[in-house]
Amino acid sequence: MFAQYACQADSAAEAARGAAALADLFTGPHRPDVLDRGSFVDTAGSHNAVWLAYWHDPQEHRRWQECGPVRSVWDGLPDEGPVGHWREACVIPLERNETLHSHRHEDIATSGLSQHAAVEMPETPVHDYWGAARDRIAASATETLEPELPVFEPDLSRDGGTRGRRVVVEVPDNVTLIRTAQDWSASTAYREKYLADVKPVKDRGVDFLAANADSGCIAARNLIEESADGTPLDRACTIAWFASLEHLMTWCRSHRTHLEIYASFYQMASGGEAPLDVAFWHEVSVLPSGSVTAEYVNCHPGTGFLPLPGHRHSVAEKA
After folding, report:
1. Using CA atoms, how far apart are residues 38 and 235, in angstroms rounded to an integer?
2. Which helix H or strand E contains 235, and what residues bound it?
3. What is the DSSP letter of 94?
4. Helices 68-75 and 58-66 meet at what angle, rounded to 10?
5. Do 92 and 211 touch, CB atoms closer than 8 A?
6. Which whole-number Å values give the CA distances from 219 to 125, 137, 204, 227, 311, in the listed order?
């Protein structure tokens, strides 16, 4: 189970205060197995502070979400005012997920599931060619993973109609989620090269996805990762929703912005004599219908899945 819980506001400080107000929810007997935090500015200029939570057992997430304190806080969030809140959660079938890491967590304790000792990261020969991510997804051997939404065309007709409302969005079958991350906290040999030559190129690629719906990207978030109290870390991650796995792979193998990322990474990695000490990893999941829930409270209409057509929207009922 992977879930994002966020506060959206006009300023970074206001978003951080909103996220801090949620912090105590991620404690107690049903708390997440892994909890990260980050922040980003979206295409509308709003600041979003996000909790990134993983539960190995989806039933534990359900118990957490249904417990009194969590229900009370979420139901009590204001439908109007200067801040918004949103949550996106997905149950990830293991056969529809793949992950790739440049380092073991024993060597560099990166974010995400690799933090947890129960997660094994065996070496794999299925990498370093276009299409490898699909081949690492076990379900691709027997399923086409065709999208319910073959073309993503955002519905921009609602203007501010999502403000002052609690909106649940029905998420299409076989949307694809990627979280891809970079950790330079332990880097000395490659730190300067990464920050000067690779990170700016990566950031431009994410900005392109966020602003160009014809890429098939529904939402792209370029997060600076943070400690639990909001202090920035030497880590970053991108979280993006695509209409399909093919949209993600088409961007990766053929679009200029990703090819520039690919080239800048290999130029850095091949240009030094020391072992690579910037850690990279990603998780990709193709999610079946009904496995993703998305709810937005007083958020602007460009948030997350809100740009999907209006027939997928419904007013949220409080628990």
Report:
1. 9
2. strand 232-242
3. G
4. 60
5. no
6. 31, 22, 15, 24, 19
Q: Identify the CA nearest to 180 among candidates 212, 220, 231.
A: 220
- Interacting residues of 55 by C-beta distance below 8 A, sequence separation 6+: 1, 3, 32, 33, 61, 64
Tokens describing residue 33: 């197995």
43 contacts: CB under 8 Å, gap ≥ 6 = 210, 211, 302
Nearest to 294 by CA among 176, 175, 167, 179: 167
Distance CA 265, CA 193 (A): 10
- For the entire predicted model, the pTM comes to 0.96
Q: Check if the beta carbon of residue 4 is closer than 8 Å to that of residue 87.
A: yes
Alpha helix segments (H runs only) across 86-241:
132-136, 191-193, 199-211
Q: How far apart, in whole angstroms, are the C-alpha atoms of residue 174 and residue 22?
A: 30
For residue 306, what are its two tokens?
């809100």
Distance of alpha carbon 168 from alpha carbon 293, whole angstroms: 8
Amino acid at 145: L
Per-residue pLDDT of the chain (319 residues; tens, 9 = 90+): 999 999 999 999 999 999 999 999 999 889 999 999 999 999 999 999 999 999 999 999 999 999 999 999 999 999 999 999 999 999 999 999 999 999 888 888 788 877 777 777 788 899 989 999 999 999 999 999 999 999 999 987 766 689 999 999 999 999 999 999 999 999 999 999 999 999 999 999 999 999 999 999 999 999 999 999 999 999 999 999 999 999 999 999 999 999 999 999 999 998 777 999 999 999 999 999 999 999 999 999 999 999 999 999 998 876 5
Q: In what order do the strands lie in the sheet with 34-41?
A: 97-101, 279-287, 175-183, 232-242, 217-226, 34-41, 47-54, 2-9, 84-90, 292-297, 166-169, 313-315
